[in-house]
Please model this.
Amino acid sequence: MCLRRDSISLRFTAAAKVFILFGDPVAHSLSPVMQNAALQAAGIDGLYIPWRVQSAGLPAAFESLRGMENFGGANVTIPHKEQAFALVDTLTKEAAAVGAVNTIVARGGRLLGANTDGQGFLRSLQEEADFLPCGKRVVIFGAGGAARAVSFSLAEAGAVELTIVNRTVERAQSLAEFVDRETGVSAIGLGPDDPHIPARVRDCTLVVNTTSVGLGPSDPPPIDPALLRPGALVYDLIYRPRETALLREAEKRGCRALGGLGMLLYQGALAFALWTGQTPSEEAMRQAVVDVIA
Ligand code: NAP
Model:
């Protein structure tokens, strides 16, 4: 069989392994084009497909994986990463610590939940911005599944202070307490109108957007850009659009601005290695993504 979509041809047989992306929505995701490129480059008889499912349907969807003989592996995206944590059979050390799952690996009919977001994020910071979190103050917008992985990995990598700002303040506070408790790094959770935010943003060297604000073409920046300090690094996990309003405004104010493409690539490469035991062609993965969003 041969399907052609975007820039890659998909070749697979009826014995193909099936890899799945669970999310709602999923149509924005570039994981299918990226992971299919990796499968093709590795010569694996497999196919990576999006499965849009609401939260209420996720338990049944996961149950169906347990009996699926040709299940190759899965990713989990918005808004299911925390729910997936509770639905898998076992967890990697990192997923257990983070409390969210973005990767599922088949283990003899059982589901192993892993989380590659944090490592993908740290690698992107280091390789694309030469940024090491050790000793740094960071402000993180958002407190969902991605924020959990980002906060935890920054704390583990030596950041000294985390400020977590979220629309639902209870979620920000609970994530801050979690980071504080698990890593010993000072963390505070604030609501979006908290008066401490301007000083915290001005004093930090890294601002990270982990909210989904920016996915829409007319979405405003998740913070007042006037608060950004020139020279700070502003990282938006969103990779499509490639340049969000936050990144545009950050550049205008003399900040360094980085989108989430590198994180997508590196977390995806780690997931691929967990599923297949092989190192994927990162070049093929990057090229497939760039071809679609260029
Ligand atoms: P999630 O668990 O659903 O969390 C979404 C977050 O966005 C929550 O903090 C939520 O706040 C906030 N939010 C949503 N709509 C908002 C609005 N209108 N105003 C203010 N805040 C809003 O999703 P996730 O898995 O963490 O993913 C978040 C984003 O990161 C997505 O855009 C995703 O594509 C991106 N991401 C990128 C990569 C990558 O590899 N580059 C990896 C993972 C995720 P509440 O708590 O108040 O609902």
The chain has two domains: 2-115, 118-262. The pocket of NAP is lined by residues 77-79, 81, 117, 120, 142-147, 166-168, 171, 210-213, 215, 237-239, 260, 263-264, 267 (CB under 6 Å). The chain has eleven helices and 14 strands.
